[in-house]
Amino acid sequence: MKIIICGAGQVGWQIARHLSGEFNDVSIVDNNPALVRRATDALEVQGIVGFASHPDVLEQAGAREADMIIAATHSDEVNMVTCQVAHSVFNVTRKIARLRAQSYLDPVYSDLFRRDHMPIDVVINPEQEVSRAALRRFAAPSTFDVQDFLDGSVQLAGLALDEDCPVLNTPLRQLTELFSSLRAIVVGVRRGGKLFAPEPGDQLFNGDQIYVVSEASDLARTLAIFGKPQAKQERVVVVGAGNVGLGVARALENRKERVRVKVIERDRTRAETAADLLERTIVLHGDGMDSELLGEAAIDSADALLAVTDDDKTNLLACVRAKAMGCKMTIALVNDPSLVPLMTHLGIDAHINPRATTVSSILRHVRLGRVRSIYTIGDGEAEVIEAQVLSTSPLAGRTIANIGFPEGALVGAVKKRGEFIKPTGSTELEEGDLLVIFALRNDVPVIERLLQVAVEYF
């Protein structure tokens, strides 16, 4: 595919990195020459310096032949105009835009993005994506990462194993024998900073981080087997009342089960706005790192603290202080990926990277074949792909063992005619089957080719 990426910041660069190595013709546009140079030096992409919304710049980027344009600059308005120009002048088929301002997303104005108005096919809002990620963390508090697949019937969970894990030093093959009815598979293991797809004879050790694909109804049992029993989140403290914090608090208020939420916000105007918009949530004005204010929020009896201010260091320090005061679980919003290795040393249970969630959301709408969803693990170390088997796909009519998946890829779940199946080598894939596949970064292009259909399909 010919793809134009507008914006060479962290999001645009990560998307370009993923797509440029997968037989796509990628152009990246930015008005900052240094960012464009960084992309062209490191990636197999064409770089164009200029304003993405200008027709001559888009033409130089190859808009007349483009199949898709991804507008991910720092300006909502530039992204919107870019999509409009791509549609009106160059008739680009598919247009994706990252929009931050909540006003554009208000359901009252849903007609704005109709084809005959502002023709944007997919709108990605980072704050909404981060709010959803935070809520998934609350649903599985003993995990450091969690993501839904197959309409929520399957979940990917990241677990940090410690000395209390009852299945340490046990080969994965033996785990399958001990828990034969368990509908879960370990698809990835990170050990010593390196992520790999495990073999049946591999064992798990103290300090490993593992990724497990489990049927949703079996997740609680899966967590218990690995020494991570699930606990309810009944008292939650949110630091930061911006779009993310406000969105999380609203969602928690709307849950059937009662959750007591307290929000801490440093900016008085924003705190007053949050207090007006929230019904049952207590809003406190002050610094989320202030131990006295955290004490007023009863942090010692809180089940979780979520720090989602616009400052990474504030989020980290708020989590550290909350943990020291007795909070059971802390989650930090972290924009800078170089800070992530500090999480374990600081005792922070989980983190959310807004750029990673945005990249995953955009890639979900870009992939070839019948890919329904995609989730990026870590800093692009691996991807978990949800896809459908099509009639002319190389997968159809073959068993998993005979397909020739690369060593860095594992099938974690199969859904046949609406029924979950724990995959084995003898599982035969048929047209219409839905798959959840874990693949290391270098093996993603191979999985892409397996998921593509023959030309005669069209």
Total strands: 22
Evaluate the radius of gyration. Answer: 23 Å
Number of helices: 15
Sheet with most strands: strand arrangement: 3-2-1-4-5-6
Summing up helix and strand content along with how strands pair, one would put the structural category as: alpha/beta
Q: Name the shape in a single word.
A: globular
Classify the helix fraction into a percent range.
Answer: 25-40%
Strand content: 25-35%
Tell me the span between the first and last alpha carbons. Answer: 15 Å
Mean pLDDT: 89
Oligomer: single chain
Largest sheet: 6 strands, parallel
Flag low-confidence runs: 454-458
Explain this structure.
The chain is α/β, with parallel strands linked by helices and 458 residues long. A six-stranded parallel beta sheet has the order 3-2-1-4-5-6, sandwiched between helices. The longest helix is centred in the N-terminal third of the chain and has 14 residues, at 126-139. Mean pLDDT is 89; it is low at 454-458. It contains 15 helices and 22 strands. β13, α9 (268-277) and β14 form a beta-alpha-beta unit.
Structure summarized in a few sentences:
The chain has 458 residues and is an alpha/beta fold.
Blueprint of the fold:
Elements: E1 2-6, H1 10-20, E2 25-30, H2 33-42, E3 46-49, H3 55-60, E4 68-71, H4 76-88, E5 94-98, E6 122-124, H5 126-139, E7 145-149, E8 154-160, H6 172-178, E9 184-191, E10 194-196, E11 209-215, H7 219-225, E12 235-239, H8 243-253, E13 260-265, H9 268-277, E14 282-285, H10 291-296, E15 304-307, H11 312-324, E16 330-333, H12 342-346, E17 350-352, H13 354-363, E18 371-377, E19 382-388, H14 400-403, E20 409-416, E21 419-421, E22 434-440, H15 444-451
Parallel strand pairs: 1-2, 1-4, 2-3, 4-5, 5-6, 12-13, 12-15, 13-14, 15-16, 16-17
Antiparallel strand pairs: 7-8, 8-11, 9-10, 9-11, 18-19, 19-22, 20-21, 20-22
Helix pairs in contact: 1-13, 5-8, 5-13
